[in-house]
Design a protein that fits this description.
alpha+beta, 8-stranded antiparallel β-barrel, 1 helix, 52% strand
């Protein structure tokens, strides 16, 4: 019984992962732009991880998930000293809000709205 349940859950989760990306944004390279230029460039990988490739928060990364209403990326920054990052993209993937904070909550910042531009399907 346990083996059948584990196999069923494995099949369901394998089938569910492509659907997550189908609801919102798809894997690829994206620019997050402020009015004065590129804020950061991020890669949404097909394994549902993300990382920055250039910009203000290089060496940042974590995981992402798309739902019917938006795409959420969450993770950490190794270089900024901020620690925690959350990015919420709108359903169409054209704008995003970037939130950052320290674990002790001595710093909290929201950068919004960021204009999102698709660059490439590969990172």
């Amino acid at each position: 019984m346990k083996r059948k349940l584990a196999l069923t859950l494995s099949v369901i989760s394998t089938a569910f992962l492509p659907l997550c990306a189908a609801f919102g944004m798809s894997p690829g390279l994206y620019n997050l732009n402020l009015r004065n230029g590129t804020f950061s460039q991020i890669c949404l990988a097909s394994n549902l991880s993300w990382y920055t490739t250039a910009g203000v928060y290089s060496l940042s990364g974590g995981h992402w998930l798309s739902t019917r209403s938006n795409t959420n990326a969450f993770g950490t920054s190794a270089t900024s000293g901020v620690g925690n990052i959350s990015i919420v993209f709108n359903a169409s993937g054209t704008t995003a809000n970037w939130t950052e904070w320290t674990s002790n909550l001595s710093f909290f910042n929201v950068v919004e709205p960021l204009k999102v531009a698709f660059v490439s399907s590969s990172c």
